């Protein structure tokens, strides 16, 4: 069964002076040119992409580890999305740390890389040339 996810965005005004709001699930946040390309308050589409990527990757890594007989105790992932005005998204850095009892560092690294390759959001973001992964196994 296919699942359809939905988000809404509304914008008022010109690009630099205007503002808008995005909403999905229980989240609602304002965004503007300043929150996207400067240091203004609010959220931005790239933060939403980062949240989606971090969440999807964490779940995918859990699935890969569990399928390999090493269910994790915890996985903490941060995604950093870099955007340049006029250029677009130039990179995504995934940083993950996981507690996985009984797994070797080599097996963990293999699972972490496999999860990055098969994560649905990673696949959706394949146009971003520079997606890096820094994976740490908690001791």
Automatic annotation (TrEMBL):
It holds the Pfam family OsmC. Gene3D superfamilies: 3.30.300.20. InterPro entries: KH_dom-like_a/b, OsmC/Ohr_fam, OsmC/Ohrsf, OsmC_Ohr_Peroxiredoxin, Peroxiredoxin_OsmC. One of its GO terms (biological process) is response to oxidative stress. GO terms for molecular function: peroxidase activity. Signal peptide: none annotated. It comes from the Bacteria. NCBIfam families: osmo_induc_OsmC. This is Osmotically inducible protein OsmC. It comes from Bauldia litoralis.
């Amino acid at each position: 069964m296919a699942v359809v996810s939905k988000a809404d965005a509304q914008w008022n005004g010109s690009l630099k002076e205007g503002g808008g709001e995005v909403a999905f699930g229980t989240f609602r946040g304002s965004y503007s040119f300043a929150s996207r390309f400067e240091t203004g308050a609010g959220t931005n589409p790239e933060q939403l992409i980062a949240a989606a990527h971090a969440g999807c990757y964490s779940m995918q890594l859990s699935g890969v580890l569990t399928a390999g007989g090493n269910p994790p105790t915890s996985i903490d992932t941060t995604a950093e999305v870099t955007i340049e005005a006029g250029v677009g998204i130039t990179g995504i850095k995934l940083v993950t740390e996981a507690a996985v009892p009984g797994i070797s560092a080599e097996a963990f690294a293999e699972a972490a890389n496999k999860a990055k390759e098969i994560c649905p959001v990673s696949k959706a973001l394949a146009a971003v040339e520079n997606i890096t992964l820094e994976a740490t196994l908690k001791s």
